[in-house]
Amino acid sequence: MGKGVVSDTSQLCVGAARSKALQEADVILLLGARLNWILHFGLPPRFRSDVKFIQVDLCAEQMGANIRAAVCLLGDIRVVVSQLNMTHRQQDWRFPASAPWWNVLSSRIEQNRQMTEAMTDTSNGPLNYYAVFDELNKHLDENCIIISEGANTMDIGRAMIPNDLPRHRLDAGTFGTMGVGLGYAIAAALLCRDHFPQKRVVCIEGDSAFGFSGMELETVCRYKLPIIFVIINNNGISFGQEEEDWKEAFKTDSTLSMSPTALLPNARYEKVLEAFGGRGYYVKTANELRDSLRLAFEERNESSMLNVRISSTADRKPQEHFWLTRSNL
């Protein structure tokens, strides 16, 4: 969970041009990162065929896994990076700010920013992921601890919600383990209650991911933890069905005609939290979203849940490379 080690708002962070940076870089420094499926095993077309990896890791058995590193540095990251910085200061070398590579990345960052900004406009239709996260960002501060799990919810949220501080984001991680979100949120809220009372914990869940451990809401209310839950509800796993399509499926054998990834449309998840004593909001419009977020962040003594109904066909922004969204479903 390295997000925030370099602030997402730093001029040196090129997360918004991540694909371009990885695909065309000739040297990549891996600080504890593993060349697993998340990084496409270090192989083309995600990376150049002649890319050189400098691998820093605490585990010797990880060195050269999948791809032989040009340089292997075995040790604790903090120690190794301190040694690298010491050497760097002696040489006093800096990558030129006017280099063409910076211009390429800056151009891609601006291009992606404009594309994302256009997708936040839902004035002519239902809410989508980008509109929800854009409004949520207006209420978050850098001290918030963000918990996130789901399919599109987690992937898009990782790009849309900036982290300015390290150790302030937890998600399903390398193995995509659904069901960890509420447990993470409870642990984070207890830490904040005892040591950082000004920090807020915001748990962002896809509707399917929420189903894996949703009854932990009783634990949340039992200990009066003021967690803010945001359920991104698209009626399904990755994609769902609208209520009209759901009704149509029941005209025949629904077990055959209904998509196996579809969930009950317009489910009222916020009612579960209300049953245990928390505050629930059912959100369908941009105005309802803004007002509900304001009320949730004003509440400091009870948990709140926004069940945000988005389009069942809401998707990620178009990807330049097909392998970023390829699915076997």
Describe the protein's architecture and organization.
- By secondary structure, the chain is α/β, with parallel strands linked by helices.
- Helix content is about 35%, strand content about 15%.
- It is built from 12 helices and 11 strands.
- It has a 6-stranded parallel sheet with strand order 5-4-6-7-11-10, sandwiched between helices.
- Strand 8 and strand 9 (about 240) form a beta hairpin.
- Helix 4 (about 130-135) crosses helix 5 (about 150-160) and helix 4 packs parallel to helix 12.
- It is globular, with a radius of gyration of 22 Å.
- The two termini are about 30 Å apart.
- The mean pLDDT is about 90.
